[in-house]
């Protein structure tokens, strides 16, 4: 099939030309190829790449390791007045997992499709931001600009799983204190246009797990206080709350980031059988997980109380 072979050759040429060039897009594609997905993100390889980029631009680089095998990269662009508080740009190295079978292109192939779209896990969250910091500094340096304040960039591990071994330990460290940071800019959001949006507040994530218990019984019987029934009652309450919040967004009264979002992320219930689940048995336990996000305007204690009451 010559046409398919030709197409494959076209893709190969298209991709290899782009990945060998030393352009912002080519550098971005190279950074996207590191498999940084949990549960086993590669940290050493992307850090070596970032260090080579830092060296090329003329930034100081050092690696800190607060937890073994979880390095943090710190780049520094000295300012003309180092006594001023510094500026820190933060970015995380890791990405959420991908389901490769559901991708048009493999998630870490960093494919630049003929329509100009780039496909890669972590491209928006947030490898694009990691590379934008470097590209911006590269341009500023090329134009002879020197900042008065020292600029640092931190590339932290484990952000997607809570950051306990990454930014949490960094923020507590002597190394961080010594940076004399006056202003931090963390990840924003990928932008499809020329503008770069920054945010001054973020929602705090809560993992809400509801574990329901109840009387086990035959699937043919109607009775009160079954685990699944109890769970479904809670799910109904949460679904109604979710709708009320989403309605506020849909009506234009508030933005997505201003309401409390809650989304179901897993369900765990049923008695496994060789062919799936036992169909004529009501289980004694059932569980559901929700991703809850609270804007700074929501009172966490009030939400805790409401969840307990419901
Ligand atoms: Zn992120």
Automatic annotation (TrEMBL):
NCBIfam families: Ac-peptdase-euk (TIGR01880). The keyword Ion transport does not apply. Residues 1-19 form the signal peptide. This is Uncharacterized protein. Its cofactor is Zn(2+). Binds 2 Zn(2+) ions per subunit. One of its GO terms (molecular function) is aminoacylase activity. Zn(2+) 2 binds at residues 125, 160. The active site is at residues 94, 159. It comes from Gossypium darwinii (Darwin's cotton). Transmembrane segments: none annotated. Keywords: Metal-binding, Signal, Zinc. GO terms for cellular component: cytoplasm.
């Amino acid at each position: 099939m010559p046409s398919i072979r030709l197409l494959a050759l076209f893709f190969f040429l298209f991709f290899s030309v782009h990945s060998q060039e030393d352009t912002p897009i080519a550098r971005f594609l190279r950074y996207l190829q590191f498999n940084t997905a949990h549960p086993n993100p590669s940290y050493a390889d992307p850090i070596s790449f970032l260090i080579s980029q830092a060296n090329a631009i003329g930034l100081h680089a050092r690696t800190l390791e607060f937890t073994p095998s979880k390095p943090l990269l710190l780049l520094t662009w000295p300012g003309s007045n180092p006594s001023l508080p510094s500026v820190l740009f933060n970015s995380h190295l890791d990405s959420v997992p991908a389901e490769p079978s559901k991708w048009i292109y493999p998630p870490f192939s960093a494919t630049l499709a003929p329509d100009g779209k780039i496909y890669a896990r972590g491209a928006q969250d947030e490898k694009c931001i990691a590379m934008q910091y470097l590209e911006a500094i590269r341009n500023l340096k090329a134009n002879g600009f020197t900042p008065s304040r020292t600029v640092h960039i931190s590339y932290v591990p484990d952000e997607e799983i809570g950051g306990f071994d990454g930014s949490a330990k960094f923020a507590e460290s002597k190394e961080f204190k010594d940076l004399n940071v006056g202003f931090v800019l963390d990840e924003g959001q990928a932008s499809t246009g020329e503008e770069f949006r920054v945010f001054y507040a973020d929602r705090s994530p809560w993992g809400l797990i509801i574990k329901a218990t109840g009387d086990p019984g035959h699937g043919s019987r109607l009775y009160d206080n079954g685990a699944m029934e109890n769970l479904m009652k809670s799910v109904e309450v949460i679904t109604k709350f979710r709708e009320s919040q989403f309605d506020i967004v849909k009506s234009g009264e508030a933005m997505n980031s201003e309401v409390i979002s809650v989304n179901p992320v897993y369900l765990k219930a049923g008695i496994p059988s060789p062919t799936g689940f036992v169909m004529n048995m009501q289980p004694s336990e059932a569980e559901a997980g929700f991703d809850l996000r609270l804007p700074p305007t929501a009172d966490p204690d009030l939400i805790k109380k409401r969840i307990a009451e419901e």
